Amino acid sequence: MLATHQVSATTALRAVKVLHTLAWALFAGSIVALPVVAWHRDFVAAAVLIAVVSFEVLVLVANGWRCPLTAVAARYTDDRHDNFDIYLPLLIARYNKQIFGTLFVAGILFTLVLSGIN
User: pTM of the entire structure?
Assistant: First the structure.
């Protein structure tokens, strides 16, 4: 006999929020690390970080500038605050793309300047 296990909406939402927060931390950490590795002249690591974040940007573009995990989280709650799907303060969640997009572009430019590529 197979037992069926139904996860509560609260538990499912919590799991999605944890996963989304971990993914966000990976990408935000990569953006913050970019100028640091460039400063240390590790341009291979910088290129890897740029590629990782660029992949995430492509995923966002393909999904109408929304993380696919947002749609998953939306299945488990009617809440639509900017941070309903992630464990971030409301203002950071609201302006996440502007904050980290700006930092990412600045990090790329910083890397290019330090590498001598014009």
Answer: 0.89
Top pLDDT among 4 and 78 is at 78
- With a cut of 70, say whether residue 2 has pLDDT above it: no
Q: Is 32 exposed, middle or buried (0-12, 13-18, 19+ CB in 10 A)?
A: middle
The label of the residue with tokens 């100028």 reads 35
Place of tokens 């970080």: 49
Residue type, position 102, single letter: T
What letter does residue 76 receive in the DSSP assignment?
Answer: T
Query: Which of 86, 59, 58 has its CA nearest to residue 70?
Result: 86
pLDDT of residue 7: 80
- Residue 53 identity: V
Quick check: 64 pLDDT over 60? yes
User: Considering only CA atoms, which of 44, 104, 59, 116 is closest in space to residue 70?
Assistant: 59
